[in-house]
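Below is one such record:
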Amino acid sequence: MSAGDRAGSLPHASPSVRKFARELGVPLGEVKGSGLKGRITAADVQAFTRSVMNGAVQTLAAAAQVKSAAPAGGDGAGLGLIPWPKVDFAKFGSIERKDMSRIKKISGANLLRNAIMIPAVTSHDDCDITELEAFRVSTNKENEKSGVKVTMLAFLIKSCVAALKKFPEFNSSLDGDALIYKQYFHIGFAADTPNGLMVPVIKDADKKGIMQISLEMSELAQKARDGKLSPAEMSGASFTISSLGGIGGRYFTPIINAPEVAILGVCKSTIQPVWDGKTFQPRLMLPLSLTWDHRVIDGAAAARFNVYLGQILGDFRRVLL
């Protein structure tokens, strides 16, 4: 139904023309009539169809998609919202206007679509990485000459692969009324760049060791900062990790990167007192924020995923099981 139909003002056309338009899938509300008093004729419907095929006019479906992906500052009409406020900021003080980067424009549209269309829920948890951090530090000391620095994110990628294997719905995607279960494990990781957020992808992470993952992450992150990432290096992810560990924070709610159904947010680890049954011990705790698509995943599955992931990070030998 067209916008005009919803408003209660039907397009001016005869029943035969309406039937003709329905058969072609033409929204009459978008057609300009050339007949008497703006009446829409069969020729108008045909002309509209030709213009769409030539790319001169969007169909309603395409227009709705564009509106739903509009950046902040759009009028909100496509979502049935009140218009975005128009403010003359200069009357309150001095201002500077800068155009958003191309990356932010593209990612912003995608983030808006994902935030609106996905019924997302976030589960927060903490995991003990005391022993794993000690192992990471010793590994880097042993491999100083290699030039490869192992980060906690590399262990997280490998741990997530193990969790995805145990809980395959987290490695799936929606396709209409069906789920596509992927037999590959391509892990995206958010990389902060001067021009905005980019998400390179480690392909076949299940087939690679920690050192190789660390090396690829370093190379891809540098490419991202230099603006040299290819589309192929940013596509195909089945699960994404967004880490703020190098900056700070406690918990956050990452937005799922469609068509994925889950994303893991990680913040900075901190030393906390943990009760061992007799006394409080200082332990290095890592905050986890798992956002999941409620159409595919329920709360119990998300809790189990987080618990299992924490068990692996607490004792990395579990990835061998």
